């Protein structure tokens, strides 16, 4: 069935939903904080929703390209369920078909992107209700998204991007903290669920936060950038043109780490 006004409207709705979800997810990921857990958890919700929908839009546009502008039959997308890894692999194969493999070259050569996609897949399939699931009884799976993200992705980010200056600040924090630990009472959960009960421990976590926030946004952005550019290529074969919803995610990543807020309806 070829495109009509109703289908065109639905495509615009879906693109706006995918784009705004990703934008909100990146904004919240950049605010993620071990003492404000809602930011991190909500960023996972918005990013997995937005990325899954963007991937499914890619599949629809590619199907139209291959089938004389016809739309997929009922159930075509359901076989992918919420498996972001599977959808992403399909997107890579589409990029290969239209000779755009360079779009994901960097992603294939760096294992951190596989870690992120694997995390998003697990979150989309099983972790969205992990807190409620675990409240229902001891037999439920022990899935902890925030702790897993910090253990798998943020620890790798710190290993890569911590600097000599960070180490020097760490020494200063240790010196100051040792003087304050007997004066102030601290009782919070750290990013991997462990109790922080000292000023030194709290300040050390605060020190590493900007590194985690900026670079986690940058790595997720690069995944989104590949998918948006791929959809842009596919968009040349049929209408409506949807570049406007994803143009925010196709800029060079030079300034991504300093960007605080994302909104597809505002200029860069």
Structure description:
There is one protein chain. This protein has 268 residues and is an all-alpha fold. 64% of the residues lie in helices and 1% in strands. It is built from ten helices and two strands. Strands 1-2 form a two-stranded antiparallel ribbon. The longest helix has 36 residues, at 199-234. The radius of gyration is 21 Å and the shape is globular. The relative contact order is 0.15.
Topology of helices and strands:
Blueprint: H1 5-29, H2 37-66, H3 84-97, H4 105-109, H5 111-127, H6 130-135, H7 145-161, H8 164-180, E1 188-189, E2 195-196, H9 199-234, H10 243-246
Antiparallel strand pairs: 1-2
Task: Compose a concise summary of this entry.
The chain has 268 residues and is an all-alpha fold.
Order of helices and strands: HHHHHHHHEEHH
What do the pLDDT scores average to? Answer: 86
General shape: globular
Spatial arrangement of strands, main beta sheet: 1-2
According to DSSP, the number of beta strands is 2
Largest sheet: 2 strands, antiparallel
The portion of residues assigned to helices is 55-70%
Structural class, from helix and strand content?
Answer: mainly alpha
Distance between termini? 37 Å
Unreliable sequence segments: none
Number of helices: 10
């Amino acid at each position: 069935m070829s495109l009509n006004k109703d289908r065109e409207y639905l495509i615009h709705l879906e693109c706006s939903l995918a784009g705004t979800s990703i934008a909100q997810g990146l904004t919240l990921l950049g605010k993620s904080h071990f003492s404000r857990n809602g930011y991190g958890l909500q960023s996972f919700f918005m990013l997995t929703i937005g990325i899954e929908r963007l991937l499914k839009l890619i599949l629809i546009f590619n199907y139209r390209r291959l089938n004389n502008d016809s739309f997929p039959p009922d159930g075509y997308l359901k076989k992918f369920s919420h498996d972001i890894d599977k959808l992403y692999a399909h997107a890579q194969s589409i990029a290969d078909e239209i000779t755009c493999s360079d779009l994901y070259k960097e992603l294939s050569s760096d294992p951190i992107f596989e870690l992120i996609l694997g995390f998003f897949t697990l979150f989309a399939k099983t972790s969205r209700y992990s807190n409620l699931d675990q409240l229902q009884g001891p037999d439920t799976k022990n899935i902890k998204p925030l702790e897993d993200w910090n253990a798998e992705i943020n620890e790798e980010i710190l290993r890569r991007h911590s600097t000599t200056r960070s180490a020097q600040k760490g020494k200063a924090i240790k010196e100051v903290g040792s003087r304050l630990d007997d004066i102030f009472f601290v009782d919070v959960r750290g990013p991997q669920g462990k109790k922080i009960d000292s000023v030194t421990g709290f300040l050390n976590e605060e020190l590493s936060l900007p590194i985690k926030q900026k670079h986690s946004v940058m790595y997720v952005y690069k995944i989104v950038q590949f998918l948006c550019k791929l959809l842009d290529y596919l968009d040349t074969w049929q209408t409506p043109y949807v570049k406007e919803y994803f143009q925010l995610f196709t800029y060079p990543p030079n300034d991504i780490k300093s960007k605080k807020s994302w909104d597809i309806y505002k200029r860069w």
